[in-house]
Amino acid sequence: MSTVPKRDTYDVIVIGAGPAGLAAAATAAGAGLSTLMLDENAGPGGQVWRGIASTPIKNEAVLGADYWSGAEIAKAAQGSGAEIIHRATVWSLDRNLELGVSIGGGSAFIKARRVIIATGALERPFPIPGWTLPGVMTAGAAQTMLKSSGLVPDGRTVIAGQGPLLWLLAAQILRLGGRIDRVLDTTPRGNYFAALPHAFAFMTSPYFAKGLSMMREVKARVPVVKGVIELSASGDGQLASVSYVAGGKRETLATDLLLLHQGVVPNVNLAMAAGVEHRWDELQLCWSPVLDANGASSVEGIAIAGDGAGIGGAQAAVWRGRIAARAAVAALAPDAVAKLPSLASLHGELKRAERGRLFLDTLFQPAKPFRIPSGDTIVCRCEEITAQDVRDSVAIGATGPNQLKAYRRTGMGPCQGRLCGLTVTELMAEARGKTPQEIGYYRLRAPVKPIMLSELAALPKNDDAVKAVVRG
After folding, report:
1. Distance between CA atoms of 189 and 227, rounded to whole angstroms?
2. In the structure, how many helices (H) and strands (E) does the chain have?
3. Under CATH, what is the fold of the domain 125-259?
4. Quick one: pLDDT at residue 457?
5. What top-level class would CATH report for the domain 372-439?
6. How far apart are CA 306 and CA 293, in angstroms?
7. Which one in 63, 219, 283, 402 has a CA-CA gap of 20 to 30 Å to 84?
8. Measuring CA to CA, how many Å separate 383 from each of 127, 370, 411, 413, 442?
9. pLDDT band per the 50, 70, 90 thresholds, residue 471
10. What are the start-end ranges of the H helices in 232-386?
11. Which residue has the higher pLDDT, 274 or 446?
12. Is the alpha carbon torsion for 265, 121, 173, 152 positive or negative?
């Protein structure tokens, strides 16, 4: 495993070491292409298989078979001949397939003949009153702590939201002896009827039995409230209580920890900054890149694999990674592609892995009040901009997210729009009577991750480097 890139140029650079990135790197390197995989975490696995090589949890039943399946794929990538660098922050990517990356306090530019973006997903923003209070976290953050350090909550804990990850996290916390006082299910009742036409495919998929088992496991030990239509957190500088409305009744619970989750969405910042075309997905209610069947984007040489290409889950991500890497091998080393599985077989495996996904996407489409808040609910955490601030800005002339920057600085903080971008797009679309596609998204530029000025100062001092920074 490297600490600095050994070359200036690679056949393939894979960004991200989650399921898609590991599979892509193993495939490309295994076919003889010079392959570099860059990842900002301390070890392989991404979020789904976080800590796969280092987790202190050794009881395989706690994290489940799906988690441990990542060990074999991580081992394959590490043994493939791919150069792997962890704690590497990729902060720029341009149409010339040149990447800006920071490693160990210094930055460098590296070129590739093909780039596979496998940066995965982000948790969808869940803007409710009080969501910025200390004591309120996302389910993903809690799961990161669980996988990497074996930490689980021991105080009064409420989990609120919807989606497979919510139930998986609850089960894992309980298996490790953690405390959960209540689960507040925000799945809209109408979604159950909308999802019915897709139920058969779901029931014949791997998701069905696993999901049903996890829900039964949690419900046997924790009170579950369904049909939650309002949710807020309160406290004086620290979370003290959670209030919710379900079945026409409001209840307030004294709470030390609130874990929020309403699904995941593609992490699009790097791809958007590189100029990749995106569209608004009306089912998943997020931005997704426009790709061909093999993951190729609108920018020549850039492919996207895994959940960054559209939410499909870990197993689908693996097959997408292999498909994108096979396409790179076919383009760069046609003689080597005969040794790889056929495209037909790979696409067949992907189709099986995605079976039942339409049911999940329909059932767990988040309710409007939890996506498009009102009043003084904070939308942009970095600049403390409220939903009403956004609506007021539209009233005086802001036409889209980029114009809103001039009015309120939304999207200009450390998160660079990751925690407010979708909310801002939908808020402005509603206020202007337009579609999210018409409203658009933030115009993203390098650096797409916060980096130190000292890291930029460490770049090679030559004309090409200066031009690259100016061009970014």
Report:
1. 6
2. 18, 21
3. FAD/NAD(P)-binding domain (3.50.50)
4. 82
5. mainly alpha
6. 13
7. 63
8. 14, 20, 8, 7, 15
9. low
10. 269-273, 314-332, 343-353, 357-363
11. 274
12. negative
Q: What is the pLDDT of residue 326?
A: 98
Residue 230 neighbours by CB under 8 Å, 6+ apart: 243, 244, 245, 250, 369
What does the mean pLDDT of the chain come to? Answer: 94
Inter-CA distances, 273 with 90, 94, 270, 330, 441, Å: 12, 8, 5, 27, 11
The answer to whether residues 265 and 286 touch, using CB atoms and an 8 Å cutoff, is yes
Q: pLDDT, tens digit, for every residue of 285-344?
A: 999 999 999 999 999 999 999 999 999 999 999 999 999 999 999 999 999 999 999 999
Instruction: Please check whether the two domains, 9-122+265-340 and 125-259, share a CATH topology.
Output: yes
Report strand pairing: 257-262 vs 106-117: unpaired
pLDDT at 462: 65
Q: Where are the domains of the chain?
A: 9-122+265-340, 125-259, 372-439
